[in-house]
Every structure is written in structure tokens, then in C-alpha cells.
Design goal:
By secondary structure, this protein is α+β, with helices and mostly antiparallel strands. Helices cover 28% and strands 24% of the residues. A hairpin with a 2-residue loop joins strand 2 and strand 3.
Length: 295
Amino acid sequence: MAKDYYEILGVPKGATEEEIKKAYRALARKYHPDLHPEKRAEMEAKFKEINEAYSVLSDPKKREAYDLTGEYTFEPGAAPGWPPPEGFEGFGGFPGGFEDIFSEVFGGRRRRGAQRGADLETRLELDFMHAVKGTEVKITVRRATGPETINVKVPPGVKTGSRVRISGKGEQSFQGGPPGDLYIETTVKPHAYFRRMDNDIYVDVPVTIKEAVLGAEIEVPTIDGTMTIKVPPGTQGGQKLRIRGKGVYDTHGLARGDEYIIINVVVPKKADKKTRELIEKLEETNPYEPRKGLW
């Protein structure tokens, strides 16, 4: 009976070129004989069938002929399979970009000698403080040979989208070569009051009218703990006060950003009669027009 190549790859008949390539990539990772030495003969037969289906469906002319007749006849020696012919250096000889796909699945182009293991990628969500100060976490890496729990040192300064490289923690080589690397992409949770911009930290700090007008010494939070700063007399709402060297280290640990205190002048929500009289007196003594010249 004619083989159903669409069924073999697990794609519908209207599948796009990218969908076919994606399906092949996943099946190649799952059934490649080098990944299953204990069931090599079974995997070689399965992999041969997968390669045959992909070689037809990835080639527009072959696919058109197959769609018309429901079968495709290979010329002698032309059907891709397993093992590869002697002297074979990759999948480049077959249509449809086998070499590129093999590179994606197994971590690099095939070359003479032992092949390096594939790189792996995983994601990690971090608390804000762990991301800016660095941390050590345990993660489970799922390889073809089974899961493994490893300790990972996350350097200070990572942010959402950062990629941490762990050398030698990718897939093992099945040809005696070095293992691949593990890449961890980080996502950082927002903090309750700290905000990060590049390597600088921003935090909103409320002050009273008295503190803003007369100046004061107040405690403010930093990523290293609380510290005391001076609020200059006449400080305005929205004004930024800088604390040098209290920001985030870069991922090389060589430079550190600053922290910016954003002043928020808070007025009483309720004012009794005496308070209103004092405010009126203040206005009479120190008249000013804050909106003058703005528009």
C-alpha cells in the first residue's frame, strides 16, 4: 500500500512548508537513532520513514506529484534513509534543507570527527531582588538521556530577556564529542516599589509639606537596605534625588548604576479650621504662582 507521508509527519494535507519543517524537526529529535542506542534498529527504520516523507513533502515538485497520485516512486538509490551512504557528510544532498534542520536539532553542522552535543534552552522566572543581586537556584534539565537537577549561579544584573549560558550542560554527544551548552532565558517579576531602568533603580518616596519646605533627613529603601538621605529645603514634588552607586551591577560585576528617589509631596486629606488659617497665613506671607509661565 502507498504510504501516507502526511500521516507519517503528523501534518494535514494543506500544511505549509514551515509546518512540515517544524514537524520533521520534532520527529528527528524524537526518533534519531543516535539518541536511542538501545533501540537502534527500530529507530533506524522509523527515521528512514520520516526522512522519506520529508524528502517528498519538502520538495514542491515531488509533493505535487504525490498529491496527484497518492504515491511517489524514488529513482534507485535516491530515497533518503538510514544508515547514510559511505562518505556522507550531512543532509545537504537531499532536497528541503535537511542539513539546516539537522543543525537546529543536534546543535551544529555535522563535521568530520566527534560531533558536539546539542545546546538546550530553558526559561527561569526570578524575583526582582534575586535578579538584581544574583542568586543560586536548582533547575531540572530535560535531556534525551533523562532529566537532571543542577545548581545554577545566576549573576547579578540579569533582567527579562537575559540569557545565562551554562557551559557543558546541554545534550551529551553520542559520538564521543563534547556536550552542548545550556541557555537559560530569564523573566523577572516586578517589585512592590522598586523600578529598574537599565542599571538604575527608581523608587517613589512620600514626604510631608514641612519636610519638602524646610528640608529633612529621611530613611529611604535601597536594594542593599534602608539608608538616610537629606531632602534639601524647597524640594518640589516629582524632583529626583540621586544616590550614587546604589543601582544594579552589570552582568560582568564591573560597574553599578545609581538609585533615584522620586519625591512625592503628600498633603493632608482633611484640614481643620486652625490648619486652614495657617495655610492662608502662609499664602499671604509667601505668595507665589506655580503655574505662571507654563502656558
